[in-house]
Amino acid sequence: MNFFLEDTLRSTIPQLQRGERQNLHWRWLGEGIMELTPTTGYRESVVISAGIHGNETAPIELLDLILSDLLSGKLALRVRLLVILGNPPAMRAGKRYLSTDMNRMFSGRHKDFARSYETERTRKLEAAMTAFWSTNSSVKGASRFHYDLHTAIKGSHLPRFGLLPFQNRPYHPELLKRLEAADLDALVMHQETGNTFSHFSSEQFLAESCTLELGKANPFGENKLSDFRAIDRVLRAHLGGLPFPHRSLSPVRLFRVERTLVKHADDFELGVPSETLNFTQFEKGAVLCRQNGSEQRVENDQEWILFPNPGVQTGMRAGLMLTELNRWVHPSA
């Protein structure tokens, strides 16, 4: 049976920490971290992470169900897999984080924050991913993929979307096909390096990575997992080497990040109400924020806002401004 999530929520160290089930080897690598390797070989290595924000519970529950089916043999495993539950204490507390947002700490930026559980946990997750994709433990030439699963803290005009990290190489066609099959409403491309978990895996390991925002954050037990059916089918197809489902929605809308709104001063004022939905559209000239006696305005004919949050700490992101694209454009173009 699978007690991975239960043990994690109880802060229990399992007595049995490795084994073999249904043509796969599994290893418990520490709280909230498990590795599974098929006995029949593999050509892809996949990381699926959830719970980097502890109150985003639906992806955690979804991942636990997939893991249960892998361990029971209901779903065959055709890839090498690392499963990560990012912030167990925040999960237990029902909070986004305890001290500071972990998803601003990767790629070594945890050194810039006061020492806390989150800074140490980020180090451990970086080390776990590094070990997983080291030359001694991964088939040479195996493709690498990373899905970092989230839900948003506020509503959205486009509820399901993916954020692609900036990279100097084209996005992998297979990743884009899989994201399209997941019935995402939108894909957003970054134009500069960041400090999220998906940026870390893309930049450091050339993994095909994506942060997936899959709906609204709810407490454990209050999620309607049928709302996540499309991404569930895509993840199972990827892990099991199965055909991908056909997209059932209209084409994915494509966006590009044009600028980041950062709180630099205590007098920072976001020019939109706190209840503003993700992907709310603004016209050229609209005031976005004010601070230090200056203001930022919408520069393009239309821009869309993502993650507006006036209550962030100084130095942190208060929102992203996007423009819509009508075709794929490489970020460096």
Report on the architecture of this protein.
By secondary structure, the protein is an alpha/beta fold. Helices cover 22% and strands 29% of the residues. It contains 7 helices and 16 strands. The protein has helices spanning 4-10, 58-72, 88-93, 117-132, 173-181, 197-205, 229-240; strands at residues 18-21, 24-30, 33-38, 44-50, 80-85, 143-152, 161-164, 186-189, 208-216, 253-262, 269-270, 280-283, 287-291, 294-297, 302-306, 317-325. The strands form 2 sheets. The chain has a 13-stranded mixed β-sheet with strand order 1-2-3-5-4-6-9-7-8-10-16-15-12, sandwiched between helices. The mean pLDDT is 92.
What would you call the shape?
globular
- Which strand order does the major sheet show? 1-2-3-5-4-6-9-7-8-10-16-15-12
Major beta sheet summary: 13 strands, mixed
Number of strands: 16
Fraction of residues in β-strands: 25-35%
Which structural category do the helix and sheet elements fall into? alpha/beta
Alpha-carbon distance between the termini? 50 Å
DSSP helical segment count? 7
Share in helix:
10-25%
Radius of gyration: 20 Å
